[in-house]
Amino acid sequence: MSGCRAGILLLVLLVWGWSAPAAAQDQSAQANRQFVQAMQVLQRADSTYDAQEQAKLLLEADRLLTDIITRLPESNLAVQLITNQFVGDFDYGDFKARIRGLACNDATANACLLHRVEGLIAPIEYPIAAPRWDWLSLAVAQYHLGDKGRVRPIIAPFLQALRRGAGKQEASQDLFVGRALALTGEAELALQVTRGINDCSTRVYNLADIAEALVWQGSTGRAAELAEEAAEYARAQSCAWELGLVAQALLHVGNEARARTLFLNTVEEQFSRFKDKRGNCCPPELAVAAGDLGDPNLALGLLRTVQEESPWTVPQVLGRLGARGRRP
Asked: What are the boundaries of the signal sequence (predicted)?
């Protein structure tokens, strides 16, 4: 390399080495100025009696702080805010909860109800050992009734824990994550989770749930494919106890003839096998499927055999019979 080129390269490296720290320092200086502005706005919000004015000022402070994170990510303040570190005595996590609480300016709003529900739920403990149905149910409610922006931050830690293998000692817990994903518009991601499960009950439950969610979303063709997948998996793995779920899935995607045939064959086989063992006659899902198919005599007969150990079947069966216009 010629002396001239070496000199140019050295000059470029020196300039780059000086400019990078200078840029970071400039971002930190801008962030500090903007943080002071946000704190001044927050002080004004805390000193007003006017609820509307306070809400307006809080949202302005939130805008300033969010802008630090998105526009000045190399600043120390951005790092502190995004990792929920205290800045002096300012707690960014508490501030964001206060912003979400603005939903309760209208105490009758769904957003206010969901905010209050979140305040009642025990915090998520890290590292996550198992899915939490309460938090995942809140995510589903937020998706349908509240703030869709809250959904992924709630579900993502549980999905990551599941991928790491946390909580694998109880495969049925995977049901919560798959169901939450399906009910929040993430059917394909829910399927990725589901197809990694080798437990009959959880696998078939998840497939049936995803198929039903797709029906609600208008994707009946895809839903029918998943109902068939559930049927094939149950057949291949001899999941006899889950055939009631498969019958329900087939019915929900519009294949009533096949659902009815599968249901009647399953009832005949299992009832004849266990007719002398009242407590173990049939899986509770068969009673629910009978209600879905609108056969009151068979539904109530099956319900009597399962309701003691599975009381949740009572409203399920009666509700389905009612929806089909059949009185018990």
From this structure: 1-24
CA separation for the pair 138, 140 (Å, rounded) = 5
The neighbouring-strand residues paired with 90 are: 87
The two tokens of residue 76 are 């120390």
Domain parsing of the chain, residue ranges:
30-104, 106-194, 198-328
Residue whose structure tokens are 């000692």: 169
Per-residue pLDDT of 234-291, as tens digits, reads 999 998 888 999 999 999 999 999 999 998 888 887 766 655 555 456 788 888 898 8
Beta-carbon neighbour count of residue 136 at 10 Å?
23
Q: Scanning the structure block, which residue is given the tokens 């509700």?
A: 319
Nearest Cα to Cα of residue 193 among 155, 248, 144: 155
Residue closest to 328 by CA, chosen among 305, 296, 295, 284? 296
Q: Answer whether 0.85 is exceeded by the pTM.
A: no
